[in-house]
Amino acid sequence: MREQLEALRDEALQLVNQASTQKELNDVRIKYLGKKGPITEVLRGMGKLSAEERPVVGEIANAVRGVIQTELEQRLVDVKQQEMDAKLALEAIDVTLPGRPKQVGQAHLLQQVTDEIEDIFMGLGYTIAEGPEVEQDLFNFEMLNLPKDHPARDMQDSFYITDEILMRTHTSPVQARTMLASKGEPIRILCPGKVYRRDEDDATHSHQFMQVEGLVVGEDISMADLKGTLEAFVKQMFGEAREIRLRPSFFPFTEPSVEVDVSCFKCGGKGCNICKQTGWIEILGAGMVHPHVLEMAEYDSTKMSGFAFGMGIERIAMLKYGVDDIRHFYTNDVRFSEQF
Amino acid sequence: MLVSKQWLQEFVDVRQTSGQELADLITKSGIEVEGVEVRDAELNNIVVGRVLTKEKHPEADKLNVTTVDIGQAEPVQIVCGAPNVDVGQDVIVARVGARLPGIKIKRAKLRGVVSEGMICSLEELGFEKKYIREDEQDGIHTFRENVEPGQDVLEVLGMHDEILELGLTPNRSDCLSMYGVAHEVAGILNTKPVFPTVDVTEASETTAVEVRLDSEACSFYAAREIRDIVIAESPLWLKNRLIANGIRPINNVVDITNFVLLETGQPLHAFDAQKLGNQIVVRQATAGETFQTLDEVERTLDPSMLVITDGERPVALAGVMGGANTEVDATTTSIVLESAYFAPISVRKTSRVLGLRSDSSSRFEKGVDPRRVLLALDRAATLIAEVAGGTILAGTAQAGALQLEDHLIEASVSYINHRLGMEIEGTVMQDLLERLGLGVELSADALTVSVPTRRQDLMIPADLAEEVARLYGYDALTSSLPREASRGFLPKRNQHRRHIRRLLQGAGLSQAITYSLTSEQRAMQFNEQHDLHPVKLAMPISEARSTLRTSLIPGLLEVAQHNVARQHADLAYYELGSVYLQRDASLETLPLEQEMVAGLMVGLAEQHRVHGTHVKTDFFVMKGIVETLAEALDVSLTYESVKMPSMHPGRTARVFLNGESIGFVGQVHPGLSKEEYGLKEVYVFEVDAMALHSKEALVYQEISRFPSMTRDVAVVLDRSVTASEVETVITQAAGPLLQRVELFDVYTGENVREDQKSFAFSLRYQNKERTLVDEEVTTAHQQVVEALQSTFDAELRA
Lengths: 340, 798
Hints:
The complex is a heterodimer. By secondary structure, chain A is an alpha+beta fold.
């Protein structure tokens, strides 16, 4: 019987090794280990054996069953793995094909630049102030030391709606409004926004454009503070290596007034086509708030002083990114927007 | 303002400074020099030649062969093509080796004849056509003055000169004269300027001219009379000066008035005395009065304008332009010369209303220096007598008075230093201010400055701070930051805007910024609020940009039109910006600036060609964007079908928040989009951006540990019933256990009657306190079914 069992074992193990699917293994299991299988049969016939033989044969039979069982399970793991491998191999794809990207929109370039400027000045303790784009002559001009018939009004030909109402020509009326509302208290604001001038649109002029303006009012505010502030801004915006230069100029609402140049960020000051060989690029106008402007807004100009600065956002964007035509900002051409 | 360096040299010594150096110094001190023209930069070897002989060229009809004395031992032979060349003329010769703009003169053979140089026109020397005499427009220039062969022509024409172009800001009108520029340059170079003295030699006869002022717009008027003059072409020196400063010479009298205007900044006018008579009355014009100015234009005046009259008729528009009726012409033999002080505002208005600007008006309107009114008159009279002959009658006819006193400013050294953030010594300030010709008294910290009338821009101590700073130089300025700390933050409104922008960009829309001004028709195209009045510009540049928008949609449609026309058919844009709503018919108040957010999509919303998927933009794509936005901003919107003239009547919804309309979403009316914007199918939305703001503060809701149960309900009901109506009924009927309703199927077609449709909703129930019992869900669900049956007569589908 021992021989019989061992033959059965060898036969079953051979079949286990040959099986390549779960079904074949299952068949082997049923055939050899099932209730009607030969081993069960051997065990069933043990009654005929002598009491001495019975435990010996029983042991052998159980050992054979155990070996087959173990081998079967071992083999099943391998077969399952192979089947999975085969299945996954069939599922293989070309991973270099393009994905299905989610379309993400872009912020307008002028917006990006505005946000950047806002963030820099918030870091310097400024908050954002805004005002109407359709403005009273009073705030746009008169409270900024530009009475009616002031020759400087020539500098900014305006879109009037009525004699007293116009499209604001700069963001400066926000200064006047904020000062009036602040009732003599210190101020530190940044005012971005759209402004309008009576210009024909061409590569360098736009009847609508964006400005950002800053105003600081307090005790002991000086030109030196203005210079330090603008230096901090310029280094953040255009790079640590940038320097600034102040040139005397004129604005009716500041005295003294300056134009501010930044050392050319393309050539570093050696001279190139961006800076017109001068090494410097004009980027903004600034000055100490004119005492009349402070007084019109009910500030005591003997105790309080302030500085203000203003710049064109299009100009900054054009310089920073090399854009050559201001109209690009307003046609919103996909081929333009996509680049930023 | 153009400044000839050669002329400037008469008042300030600038020989040691090149034009460019001078320009840099002036710019650094506050007046921007916009350009420096070196007049002889491209010219040399050009001399006076005297034409000795002239013969026809043997081979060419239009050429002459001349011999010309150019001051050398032997005359040279020059072939000349100019029709006006003749024997005896003194001409301009570019010698062999000479340079002219773009040309180098070489010995040449013209049709076989040797030519050693070229006889030139003024144009070939770089003169503009307007400076060239009528009869020499097509030929060469001939000198009528005494010149000698071989003389340097550039010297004769005053062209060894550099011209600085000053870009003057409105406050520096004092530099609209050579005197003013001389003061400024002397201050910069730290020298003293010198000016010519004027001695009038008067005849024994006294002028009979009388002046009367009948208007306050003229505070002072003076006139001198000059007899026996001869009108002629001006001498070279005078013409050279005018041309260098951009003014066309006319005749000796007019040229002198222009010369003195440039020199002193005081505009003058010469009347023909015989045409004028002895009476001068300055008054306001009468309504409808007509008058022909020197430019031969008939002008209709109004009472805001100041005129000079001969007692009856106008003879000049005060400070702007003279009249044709008293013009100085070739036959004039005596003149009355005017010098006056007209109110800047009056001149400015007149010149504006008539659209007439002149060298005179541009100076008067900024205020001339009162101290130069009589000085300029005497200077001009003297020069006219010198250049045009004639005698100056005794006496100056005058009326009114001039404000000649210096203006005093009380400042302090500490104030100026404080304002600048610098530490400049009082004595240094004194020196700087004195260099500009101001009177300065320094006593400890006190700085008392007397400002002469020519510097009307210096009024207050802050003005002095600027004068000190610009001469001292800003390079010496140190940097600091305001000492006090300050709260820097982004206000809520701006945070909200940034939030909307991020969400829409995340949803695939790119930001557009478009013009606020559009055409009147487009301005109102997508806003149907009936109480709005268009806000129109008084003087638009074009109709297309004449009116303020009341909707962002037309601007976005223009963006789409632009891009679709350039083969970009799939677009998704948004804009966040103001619309301008005017409800005040009088237009006397500011319009409401309402911030809207609008979106536009056209073509495919999504496309992955290699994967064979694409989503075409339709109403629901656009609405989905609005829903996403609302969801993220925690506001709950409802939608109702609406008809708007510019929108598709069946594919547009009004958007409500808490029962109030805040905008719309839908397809632009295909007729409109096609015809006006060339777009077939375009979807848009526009809602009040600031309304999209949840009023409630966010509070954390505990996440329930208990499982939920989902039941579906499918009903067939009348086709006119909307999904939102059904959803409302479900929500009300289900009670508090209902957590979510989701429409997951809409069906019409087979097995459903034509006037009906089928909706299938999935309902999720949950009790946050305990595990749901099957029965309570069944009860709630049964209530839903019954409500649908009773409200819509709905039929339950299996």
